Amino acid sequence: MTIDSVDSLISCIQEVQRSPKVKEYLVLGEGSNTVFVEDYPYFVLLNRIKGIELSENDDQYSLTVGAGENWHELVTYCVERGIGGFENLALIPGTVGASPIQNIGAYGVEIEKFIDKVEFLDTATLTIQTLAKHECNFAYRDSIFKRQLPNSRIITNVFFTLPKRYDFVIDYGPLSALIKPSIKDIYNAVVAVRKSKLPNVKVMGNAGSFFKNPVIDKVHFAALQNKYHDIVSYPVDQNHVKIPAAWLIDRLGFKGKRIGDIGCHVNQPLVLVNLGNGQGNELLKLAREIRDSVQSEFNIALENEVRLMGEQGLVKL
Protein backbone atom coordinates (compact mmCIF):
# COMPACT_ATOMS: atom_id res chain seq x y z
CA MET A 1 0.00 0.00 0.00
CA THR A 2 1.33 3.42 -0.94
CA ILE A 3 0.53 6.46 1.21
CA ASP A 4 0.70 9.94 -0.33
CA SER A 5 -1.47 11.94 2.05
CA VAL A 6 -2.91 11.85 5.55
CA ASP A 7 -6.29 10.80 4.13
CA SER A 8 -4.78 7.85 2.26
CA LEU A 9 -2.84 6.89 5.39
CA ILE A 10 -6.03 6.82 7.44
CA SER A 11 -7.76 4.74 4.75
CA CYS A 12 -4.90 2.22 4.72
CA ILE A 13 -4.89 1.89 8.50
CA GLN A 14 -8.64 1.37 8.52
CA GLU A 15 -8.28 -1.37 5.92
CA VAL A 16 -5.57 -3.08 7.96
CA GLN A 17 -7.64 -2.88 11.13
CA ARG A 18 -10.65 -4.41 9.38
CA SER A 19 -8.67 -7.43 8.19
CA PRO A 20 -9.32 -10.36 10.58
CA LYS A 21 -6.15 -12.24 9.64
CA VAL A 22 -3.58 -9.45 9.95
CA LYS A 23 -1.52 -9.60 13.14
CA GLU A 24 0.59 -6.60 12.30
CA TYR A 25 1.80 -4.28 9.53
CA LEU A 26 5.01 -2.52 8.64
CA VAL A 27 5.56 1.11 7.70
CA LEU A 28 8.51 1.82 5.41
CA GLY A 29 10.02 4.96 3.96
CA GLU A 30 12.62 3.67 1.52
CA GLY A 31 13.42 0.55 3.54
CA SER A 32 17.13 1.40 3.68
CA ASN A 33 17.42 0.40 7.34
CA THR A 34 15.29 -2.75 7.10
CA VAL A 35 16.30 -6.24 5.99
CA PHE A 36 13.77 -9.00 5.38
CA VAL A 37 15.46 -12.23 6.51
CA GLU A 38 12.29 -14.23 5.74
CA ASP A 39 9.12 -13.65 3.75
CA TYR A 40 6.94 -11.05 5.50
CA PRO A 41 3.25 -12.06 5.16
CA TYR A 42 1.55 -8.88 6.40
CA PHE A 43 0.70 -5.43 5.04
CA VAL A 44 3.56 -3.08 4.12
CA LEU A 45 2.71 0.64 3.99
CA LEU A 46 5.04 2.83 1.92
CA ASN A 47 5.11 6.40 3.21
CA ARG A 48 5.25 8.82 0.27
CA ILE A 49 3.85 11.95 1.93
CA LYS A 50 5.75 14.79 0.25
CA GLY A 51 6.17 18.53 0.55
CA ILE A 52 8.73 21.10 1.74
CA GLU A 53 7.66 24.43 3.26
CA LEU A 54 10.40 26.96 4.06
CA SER A 55 10.13 30.19 6.04
CA GLU A 56 12.63 32.39 7.86
CA ASN A 57 13.15 35.29 10.20
CA ASP A 58 16.26 37.21 11.22
CA ASP A 59 17.57 34.38 13.38
CA GLN A 60 16.52 31.07 11.85
CA TYR A 61 15.01 29.01 9.07
CA SER A 62 11.91 26.88 9.66
CA LEU A 63 11.21 23.79 7.56
CA THR A 64 8.09 21.64 7.46
CA VAL A 65 8.87 18.49 5.51
CA GLY A 66 6.72 15.54 4.48
CA ALA A 67 7.79 12.20 5.92
CA GLY A 68 8.13 10.66 2.47
CA GLU A 69 10.72 13.13 1.18
CA ASN A 70 14.17 11.69 0.48
CA TRP A 71 16.60 12.72 3.23
CA HIS A 72 19.65 13.42 1.08
CA GLU A 73 17.56 15.44 -1.37
CA LEU A 74 16.43 17.60 1.56
CA VAL A 75 20.05 18.13 2.63
CA THR A 76 20.94 19.12 -0.94
CA TYR A 77 17.91 21.45 -1.10
CA CYS A 78 19.18 23.27 1.99
CA VAL A 79 22.83 23.42 0.93
CA GLU A 80 21.90 24.88 -2.46
CA ARG A 81 20.06 27.69 -0.65
CA GLY A 82 22.89 28.37 1.79
CA ILE A 83 20.97 26.89 4.71
CA GLY A 84 23.38 25.21 7.08
CA GLY A 85 23.00 22.50 9.70
CA PHE A 86 22.28 19.35 7.73
CA GLU A 87 25.54 19.24 5.73
CA ASN A 88 27.22 16.67 8.02
CA LEU A 89 24.27 14.35 7.41
CA ALA A 90 24.59 14.27 3.63
CA LEU A 91 24.10 11.01 1.74
CA ILE A 92 22.45 9.21 4.66
CA PRO A 93 19.92 6.91 2.95
CA GLY A 94 16.22 6.92 3.74
CA THR A 95 13.38 9.37 4.16
CA VAL A 96 12.75 12.41 6.33
CA GLY A 97 10.17 10.48 8.37
CA ALA A 98 12.81 7.96 9.40
CA SER A 99 15.21 10.65 10.63
CA PRO A 100 13.60 11.24 14.06
CA ILE A 101 12.79 7.54 14.54
CA GLN A 102 16.45 6.61 14.24
CA ASN A 103 17.79 9.99 15.41
CA ILE A 104 20.14 9.80 12.46
CA GLY A 105 23.63 11.15 12.88
CA ALA A 106 27.06 11.38 11.30
CA TYR A 107 30.32 13.27 11.74
CA GLY A 108 29.45 14.70 15.13
CA VAL A 109 25.88 15.83 14.39
CA GLU A 110 22.56 14.18 15.29
CA ILE A 111 19.26 15.26 13.82
CA GLU A 112 17.64 15.91 17.22
CA LYS A 113 19.67 19.14 17.31
CA PHE A 114 17.42 20.63 14.62
CA ILE A 115 14.03 19.03 15.26
CA ASP A 116 11.34 21.32 16.65
CA LYS A 117 8.45 18.84 16.67
CA VAL A 118 7.20 15.71 14.96
CA GLU A 119 3.68 15.28 13.55
CA PHE A 120 2.17 11.81 13.42
CA LEU A 121 -1.01 9.80 13.05
CA ASP A 122 -2.18 8.09 16.24
CA THR A 123 -3.38 4.77 14.83
CA ALA A 124 -5.64 4.08 17.82
CA THR A 125 -7.65 7.28 17.47
CA LEU A 126 -6.85 8.05 13.79
CA THR A 127 -6.07 11.65 14.76
CA ILE A 128 -3.08 13.81 13.86
CA GLN A 129 -0.97 14.78 16.87
CA THR A 130 2.48 16.22 17.56
CA LEU A 131 5.32 15.64 19.97
CA ALA A 132 7.71 18.47 20.82
CA LYS A 133 11.43 17.76 20.69
CA HIS A 134 11.72 17.23 24.45
CA GLU A 135 8.92 14.64 24.32
CA CYS A 136 10.63 12.48 21.69
CA ASN A 137 13.09 10.87 24.14
CA PHE A 138 15.96 11.19 21.71
CA ALA A 139 19.08 9.14 22.41
CA TYR A 140 21.86 7.63 20.36
CA ARG A 141 20.11 6.13 17.29
CA ASP A 142 16.93 5.99 19.33
CA SER A 143 13.67 7.79 20.04
CA ILE A 144 10.21 7.27 21.48
CA PHE A 145 9.00 6.32 18.00
CA LYS A 146 11.48 3.46 17.78
CA ARG A 147 11.16 1.99 21.26
CA GLN A 148 7.87 2.88 22.88
CA LEU A 149 5.60 3.71 19.94
CA PRO A 150 6.45 1.52 16.93
CA ASN A 151 3.55 1.41 14.44
CA SER A 152 1.15 3.08 16.88
CA ARG A 153 2.43 6.48 15.72
CA ILE A 154 3.10 6.98 12.00
CA ILE A 155 5.08 10.11 11.20
CA THR A 156 3.51 12.44 8.63
CA ASN A 157 5.61 15.64 8.86
CA VAL A 158 8.78 16.76 10.62
CA PHE A 159 9.33 20.37 11.69
CA PHE A 160 12.94 21.61 11.73
CA THR A 161 14.53 24.79 13.01
CA LEU A 162 17.98 25.72 11.68
CA PRO A 163 19.75 28.75 13.19
CA LYS A 164 21.37 31.22 10.82
CA ARG A 165 24.39 31.58 13.08
CA TYR A 166 26.07 28.43 14.34
CA ASP A 167 29.48 26.80 14.52
CA PHE A 168 30.36 24.19 11.91
CA VAL A 169 31.13 20.74 13.31
CA ILE A 170 34.38 19.75 11.62
CA ASP A 171 36.34 18.05 14.40
CA TYR A 172 35.31 14.55 13.40
CA GLY A 173 37.51 12.33 11.20
CA PRO A 174 38.31 13.65 7.71
CA LEU A 175 36.40 16.91 8.23
CA SER A 176 39.14 18.10 10.59
CA ALA A 177 41.39 18.67 7.58
CA LEU A 178 39.07 21.37 6.21
CA ILE A 179 40.25 24.96 6.61
CA LYS A 180 37.58 27.66 6.95
CA PRO A 181 35.07 25.58 5.01
CA SER A 182 31.74 26.71 3.62
CA ILE A 183 28.50 24.75 4.00
CA LYS A 184 29.07 23.37 0.49
CA ASP A 185 32.66 22.37 1.33
CA ILE A 186 31.50 20.27 4.28
CA TYR A 187 28.68 18.77 2.23
CA ASN A 188 31.06 17.81 -0.58
CA ALA A 189 33.59 16.33 1.84
CA VAL A 190 30.98 14.18 3.57
CA VAL A 191 29.59 12.96 0.25
CA ALA A 192 33.09 12.10 -0.99
CA VAL A 193 34.00 10.19 2.17
CA ARG A 194 30.76 8.24 2.26
CA LYS A 195 31.08 7.32 -1.41
CA SER A 196 34.67 6.15 -0.90
CA LYS A 197 33.95 4.04 2.18
CA LEU A 198 30.43 2.73 1.70
CA PRO A 199 29.13 0.51 -1.10
CA ASN A 200 26.42 1.86 -3.39
CA VAL A 201 23.21 0.09 -2.39
CA LYS A 202 22.10 0.11 -6.04
CA VAL A 203 25.17 -1.93 -6.97
CA MET A 204 25.72 -4.07 -3.87
CA GLY A 205 22.80 -4.76 -1.54
CA ASN A 206 23.36 -3.46 2.00
CA ALA A 207 21.61 -1.55 4.76
CA GLY A 208 24.48 0.68 5.81
CA SER A 209 26.04 0.35 9.25
CA PHE A 210 24.72 -2.90 10.68
CA PHE A 211 25.65 -2.29 14.33
CA LYS A 212 25.48 0.77 16.53
CA ASN A 213 28.72 2.22 17.88
CA PRO A 214 28.73 0.99 21.49
CA VAL A 215 29.02 3.36 24.45
CA ILE A 216 31.05 2.08 27.42
CA ASP A 217 32.20 3.57 30.71
CA LYS A 218 35.69 5.00 31.06
CA VAL A 219 36.81 2.31 33.51
CA HIS A 220 36.03 -0.35 30.93
CA PHE A 221 37.74 1.70 28.24
CA ALA A 222 40.90 2.15 30.34
CA ALA A 223 41.15 -1.63 30.74
CA LEU A 224 40.80 -2.11 26.98
CA GLN A 225 43.32 0.64 26.28
CA ASN A 226 45.93 -1.16 28.37
CA LYS A 227 45.61 -4.15 26.04
CA TYR A 228 44.84 -2.38 22.75
CA HIS A 229 46.93 0.79 22.62
CA ASP A 230 45.48 1.86 19.27
CA ILE A 231 41.82 1.56 20.26
CA VAL A 232 39.75 4.49 19.02
CA SER A 233 37.19 6.38 21.12
CA TYR A 234 35.09 9.53 21.13
CA PRO A 235 33.89 11.32 24.27
CA VAL A 236 30.21 11.05 25.19
CA ASP A 237 30.09 12.56 28.65
CA GLN A 238 32.19 12.73 31.80
CA ASN A 239 31.95 9.00 32.41
CA HIS A 240 31.47 7.39 28.99
CA VAL A 241 33.09 7.08 25.58
CA LYS A 242 31.87 5.76 22.23
CA ILE A 243 33.87 3.05 20.47
CA PRO A 244 33.58 2.67 16.67
CA ALA A 245 32.01 -0.72 16.06
CA ALA A 246 33.97 -0.90 12.81
CA TRP A 247 37.25 -0.80 14.77
CA LEU A 248 36.17 -3.70 16.98
CA ILE A 249 34.99 -5.78 14.02
CA ASP A 250 38.08 -5.01 11.94
CA ARG A 251 40.39 -5.87 14.85
CA LEU A 252 38.87 -9.34 14.94
CA GLY A 253 39.62 -9.90 11.25
CA PHE A 254 36.08 -9.82 9.88
CA LYS A 255 36.80 -7.41 7.01
CA GLY A 256 36.05 -9.30 3.82
CA LYS A 257 34.80 -12.40 5.66
CA ARG A 258 31.72 -14.05 4.19
CA ILE A 259 29.19 -16.76 4.94
CA GLY A 260 27.63 -17.89 1.71
CA ASP A 261 26.85 -14.73 -0.25
CA ILE A 262 26.71 -12.43 2.78
CA GLY A 263 29.95 -10.74 3.79
CA CYS A 264 31.62 -7.87 5.61
CA HIS A 265 32.51 -5.19 3.09
CA VAL A 266 36.21 -5.15 2.24
CA ASN A 267 36.52 -1.41 2.95
CA GLN A 268 34.06 -1.07 5.83
CA PRO A 269 33.46 -4.18 7.97
CA LEU A 270 30.55 -2.51 9.76
CA VAL A 271 28.54 -2.87 6.54
CA LEU A 272 27.22 -6.34 5.72
CA VAL A 273 26.70 -6.79 1.99
CA ASN A 274 24.89 -9.16 -0.34
CA LEU A 275 27.52 -10.52 -2.72
CA GLY A 276 25.08 -12.22 -5.05
CA ASN A 277 22.32 -14.44 -3.77
CA GLY A 278 22.61 -13.89 -0.03
CA GLN A 279 20.06 -15.53 2.23
CA GLY A 280 18.52 -14.34 5.47
CA ASN A 281 19.94 -17.24 7.49
CA GLU A 282 23.44 -16.38 6.22
CA LEU A 283 23.03 -12.77 7.30
CA LEU A 284 21.87 -13.78 10.77
CA LYS A 285 24.69 -16.31 11.15
CA LEU A 286 27.40 -13.79 10.22
CA ALA A 287 25.88 -11.00 12.34
CA ARG A 288 25.62 -13.28 15.36
CA GLU A 289 29.19 -14.47 14.90
CA ILE A 290 30.38 -10.86 14.86
CA ARG A 291 28.28 -9.99 17.91
CA ASP A 292 29.48 -13.01 19.90
CA SER A 293 33.14 -12.47 18.95
CA VAL A 294 33.08 -8.83 20.04
CA GLN A 295 31.41 -9.81 23.31
CA SER A 296 33.99 -12.51 23.97
CA GLU A 297 37.07 -10.44 23.10
CA PHE A 298 36.13 -6.97 24.34
CA ASN A 299 33.23 -7.62 26.75
CA ILE A 300 31.16 -5.23 24.65
CA ALA A 301 27.60 -6.01 23.61
CA LEU A 302 26.89 -4.89 20.05
CA GLU A 303 23.34 -3.91 19.17
CA ASN A 304 22.11 -4.07 15.59
CA GLU A 305 21.12 -0.74 14.07
CA VAL A 306 19.41 -2.44 11.12
CA ARG A 307 15.82 -3.61 11.64
CA LEU A 308 15.39 -7.32 10.85
CA MET A 309 11.98 -8.59 9.77
CA GLY A 310 10.72 -12.15 9.33
CA GLU A 311 7.58 -14.28 9.14
CA GLN A 312 6.59 -13.41 12.72
CA GLY A 313 7.56 -9.76 12.53
CA LEU A 314 10.61 -8.26 14.20
CA VAL A 315 13.54 -10.68 14.46
CA LYS A 316 15.90 -10.36 17.42
CA LEU A 317 19.55 -10.90 16.70
Number of helices: 8
Oligomer: single chain
Element pattern in H and E = EHEEEEEHHEEEEHEHEEHEEHEEEHEE
Low-confidence spans: none
Strand content: 25-35%
Distance between the termini: 28 Å
Helix content bin = 25-40%
Shape: globular
CATH architecture of the largest domain: 2-Layer Sandwich
CATH topology of the largest domain: Uridine Diphospho-n-acetylenolpyruvylglucosamine Reductase, domain 3
How many domains make up the coordinates? 3
Mean pLDDT: 94
Secondary-structure content class: alpha+beta
Write up this protein.
The chain is α+β, with helices and mostly antiparallel strands. It contains 8 helices and 20 strands. The chain folds into 3 domains: 2-47; 52-193, Uridine Diphospho-n-acetylenolpyruvylglucosamine Reductase, domain 3; 200-314, Uridine Diphospho-n-acetylenolpyruvylglucosamine Reductase, domain 1, CATH 3.90.78.10. The longest helix has 19 residues, at 280-298. The chain is globular and about 55 Å long. 35% of the residues are buried. The mean pLDDT is 94.
Highlighted features:
Uridine Diphospho-n-acetylenolpyruvylglucosamine Reductase, domain 3, Uridine Diphospho-n-acetylenolpyruvylglucosamine Reductase, domain 1, 317 residues, 26% helix, four-stranded antiparallel sheet, 26% strand, alpha+beta, five-stranded antiparallel sheet
